[in-house]
Backbone:
């Protein structure tokens, strides 16, 4: 009896240990999902294992590829290289046997800072008004000219440099020393001058036929804020807020947006008119699910096939009636796949993902000009992810606003093919 009692006690202790270990496994799996899930970017995948079939990737161009050479530009100046005497025997050389032409590309020498004194004429007009003369190179305030203001804004937003590195760059190239605190105020001034353009872009996005939307974390005062992007493919709005709620969507798109919202499926974008869910996320979700069960990879092939056939069917922009028919047919194929996949336990999460967005996977078929993926928004955020790593954090709500305005306007001008330096210099003069 004593032996039985001892075994029962050990059994009870082992059962308790099993429960504790199971709980620990669940906690560790939850933590692992932060780094290994279908939506984790490659930069955050800490434990990526190399597959057996992944050989060493070949370097350089593939065999047989046609080579390319940088085209020779038209020279802007000509310099002659001559010798009077032989450097070896010191004899006179006379006329050259032939002339070799060689074109190089060179940067101009660092330009010294221009210190300009403006003599501003003031007038008392007969109408009783006081008139102050204006000049296109004279900003409305401050000690820095439009080119200086434009350069600081570009180095900050386009080159993604911290203010201390901008300070070194300006000192090295132009011999001017500006403190990081002063450059912060310069960036704020430039953002103030671009605010009307920023507000105009918001109105354009609200009236767009399609808005590609996404968001990512961005540090402000050492805390996690959210950088939102709304784009129609060219006009792009960035907004930094400490909230990830749906009120942010209403703030930019309005409460009665008439276009199609393209997103990764985050809930705040739903129930706001027409919606297109991102196919890249759907395929990635299934790919992640079948990695643990390769025998189910046929589902992944079928999903990709549905996607590519759908895109092929709408090439040439067929009539709306035909597009609606195509949509019904392809949605039926998705439902059939859902029925087959739902019997597999390992595909349960994918099936839920597919079913929840069933009404939104084929919106692009019926509405011309809508992309089936959210790559537009994700690409827009990519540079900011790099900048986030470089600068670490912004300083307060004012810094967040400055970042939002400058990045929105400069990104839009660049996508429009405009000369951002010239436009920015003109904008800060007013």
Residues:
């Amino acid at each position: 009896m004593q032996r039985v009692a001892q075994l029962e006690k050990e059994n009870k202790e082992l059962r308790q240990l099993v429960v504790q270990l199971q709980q620990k496994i669940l906690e560790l799996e939850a933590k692992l999902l932060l780094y290994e899930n279908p939506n984790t970017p490659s930069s955050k995948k800490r434990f990526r294992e190399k597959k057996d079939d992944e050989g060493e990737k070949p370097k350089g161009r593939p065999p047989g590829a046609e080579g390319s050479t940088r085209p020779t530009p038209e020279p802007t100046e000509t310099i002659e290289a001559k010798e009077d005497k032989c450097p070896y025997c010191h004899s006179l050389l006379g006329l050259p046997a032939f002339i070799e032409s060689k074109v190089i590309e060179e940067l101009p020498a660092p330009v010294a800072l221009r210190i300009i004194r403006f003599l501003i004429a003031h007038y008392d007009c007969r109408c009783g008004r006081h008139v102050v003369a204006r000049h296109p190179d004279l900003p409305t305030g401050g000690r820095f000219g439009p080119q200086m203001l434009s350069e600081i804004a570009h180095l900050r937003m386009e080159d993604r440099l911290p203010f201390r590195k901008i300070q070194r760059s300006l000192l090295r190239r132009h011999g001017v020393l500006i403190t990081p605190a002063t450059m912060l105020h310069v960036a704020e001034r430039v953002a103030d001058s671009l605010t009307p353009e920023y507000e105009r872009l918001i109105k354009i996005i609200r009236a767009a036929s399609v808005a590609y939307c996404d968001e990512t974390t961005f540090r402000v005062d050492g805390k996690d804020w959210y950088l939102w992007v709304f784009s129609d493919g060219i006009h792009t709005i960035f907004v930094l807020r400490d909230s990830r709620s749906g009120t942010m969507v209403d703030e930019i798109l309005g409460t009665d947006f008439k276009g199609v919202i393209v997103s990764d499926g985050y809930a705040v974008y739903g129930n706001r008119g027409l919606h297109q869910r991102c196919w890249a996320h759907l395929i990635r979700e299934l790919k992640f699910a079948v990695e643990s069960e390769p025998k189910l990879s046929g589902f992944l092939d079928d999903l990709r096939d549905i996607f590519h056939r759908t895109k092929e069917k709408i090439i040439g922009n067929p009539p709306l009636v035909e597009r609606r028919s195509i949509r019904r047919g392809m949605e039926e194929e998705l439902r059939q796949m859902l029925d087959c996949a739902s019997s597999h336990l390992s595909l349960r999460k994918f099936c839920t993902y597919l079913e929840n967005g069933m009404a939104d996977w084929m919106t692009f078929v019926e509405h011309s000009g809508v992309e089936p993926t959210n790559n537009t928004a994700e690409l827009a955020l990519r540079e900011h992810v790099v900048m986030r790593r470089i600068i670490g954090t912004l300083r307060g709500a004012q810094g967040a606003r400055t970042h939002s305005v400058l990045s929105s306007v400069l990104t839009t001008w660049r996508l429009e093919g405009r000369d951002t330096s010239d436009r920015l210099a003109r904008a800060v003069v007013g």
